[in-house]
């Protein structure tokens, strides 16, 4: 009779996708019933007072001071020096760190009965320092998101935490201190004008206020589920504090305005040329954002169509992701031919925005930089064309949806093209029709 199968843990160097320095991430592989999950390992974080209970971690923090929280990457040579029987110098610290990670995982596995990956993850990764403290929970959630590779969302939680600390002037803030009145004061503070270089500006937009407070609400909901506080003290919802929505500002261009951008003269082969084409590619490809565009590989191209699942939804709808299908027009094809990496191997990214083997942090920074470059170029072009509004990468998505609507496409078709799960989300994307179009319809009312 076979014994009960248990999970196993192993630290290894994942050499599949080395970075530009020929270094690869250290990962913890947990295997159970022939299925494996890999977890990126990071340098230990210092606690607030600079101390830690583990002697090994003390040594590591002394050796790798300032690297707390960063992904551990090593070359194959360095990994072999750390993984040998008698490593020397800093490699002995690495070996101690790997042994610590592996031993801790084995201990957690032994106490996780029955075993599941979700239970293992909740026990293995560090818990918040104070579950009664809103700030500790926000910090913990940001760390979780970074470990999952969801850097953009993690940054959103980190910005929320920094804003709340600035507002309160405190480093800790118990859940009990948050009520409707406090949330209203925070919203007012966020929207207060402030002086910058002789100009009066608003501190933040309603959109930013809403984003930050949705993060706070998410933490509250989890704390409520975990019975951290009484349900009747929950401050959000109808009759309590309602999170504001963003202002409905027109973001879409007309088809004529998009045409002006497409035909704008730029130096051939220049950065301006490339960034303008990237914006057009986003517009033509169902308004996909820069992250989805950057992650496209030649495998996504199937004959005359491009198939992809949005990064934003692939995690939320893991069991039933909604793919987006894009027809490859002549202009899309020309942009790929002009700027696509050659040769076009199946696993190769189409555009040189990302590189194989990037860590999530490196990928996030590369996409942020590409977005900044595109916005700078397209903003200058819009200014030179004297367009009536600010144009960014976000405008491309709204313009795609609105131009289709003005051309007679159904909202359902547009919703499917954008990869939305419901039509209501799509309707928020559809800007108002131009004034002249409204006037034409109004005049029909007097055609007696």
Structure description:
There is one protein chain. With 448 residues, the chain is an alpha+beta fold. It folds into three domains: 8-124, no CATH class; 134-233; 255-441, Orthogonal Bundle (hpI Integrase, Chain A), CATH 1.10.443. It is built from 18 helices and nine strands. A hairpin with a 2-residue loop joins strand 7 and strand 8. The chain is globular and about 85 Å long.
In short:
With 448 residues, this protein is of the alpha+beta class.
Question: Distance between the terminal alpha carbons, to the nearest Å?
Answer: 91 Å
Q: SSE order in H/E notation?
A: EEEHEHHHHHHEEHHHHEEHEHHHHHH
Strand content: 5-15%
The radius of gyration over CA amounts to 26 Å
CATH architecture of the largest domain: Orthogonal Bundle
CATH topology-level name of the largest domain: hpI Integrase, Chain A
The portion of residues assigned to helices is 40-55%
Give the SSE map.
Layout: E1 8-13, E2 24-32, E3 35-40, H1 55-63, E4 73-74, H2 76-82, H3 90-111, H4 117-124, H5 134-147, H6 151-168, H7 180-191, E5 193-196, E6 199-202, H8 206-225, H9 255-262, H10 271-284, H11 290-294, E7 301-302, E8 305-308, H12 311-314, E9 324-327, H13 330-339, H14 360-384, H15 393-406, H16 411-418, H17 423-429, H18 435-444
Antiparallel strand pairs: 1-2, 2-3, 2-4, 5-6, 7-8, 8-9
